[in-house]
Amino acid sequence: MTVEQELKQLADPEKAAFSQRFFRTGKGEYAEGDVFLGITVPKQRAVAKQYADLSRRAVKKLLTSKIHEHRLTALYILVGQYANDKKRTYDFYMQHLHCINNWDLVDSSAYKIVGEHLLDKERTVLYTLARSRNLWERRIAMISTYAFIRKNDFADALAIAELLVDDEHDLIHKAVGWMLREIGKRDLTAEERFLKKHYTTMPRTMLRYAIEKFTPAQRTFYMRKP
Question: Which conformational region is residue 55 in: left (phi greater than 0), alpha (psi within -120 to 50 degrees), or beta?
Fold first, then answer.
């Protein structure tokens, strides 16, 4: 049985209809045209584990599918394969960025492949992605820095947050705010240095994400109108 056949057996039309709405697949929305089968993440992870050694050709077929769960399962497989084939997996991922085109696809893979690969390497590619006109490439740039943040390396995360602080899309606001919050968990001073520079002008969603773990008094301070 193929991965596609396994996933088809797990399809749930009711969940699919919900996902179509939740992931904004309507005309003019950020995921316009994305197609869902309605499969939970744990079930997709289980399928990915079952096909951990899937050939790169078969992974490519999944990753280029119009069906969301095919792409997400392919990414789970790639994340698993990265440990044993780092350079080739990273290169394959970067060659297929156009397929990583929804926020859950980005969030489940970018820092685990791109971020991990760049831990000990030059990171110019992230700045190129951060300046992209493509929403998902910008989110990949920001979320990839989570790998660095987890190692208490904040410089590139803060620099990319600077590039994206005035971004117009709420999915970037959420990504930047999330990474700032993760920095704050490890170094509150570093996060607050950024916030004190930008909190009066940064998007409110970004700010709310960034200060989510602050005390009520701290949140009141940062959310007040200038």
Answer: beta
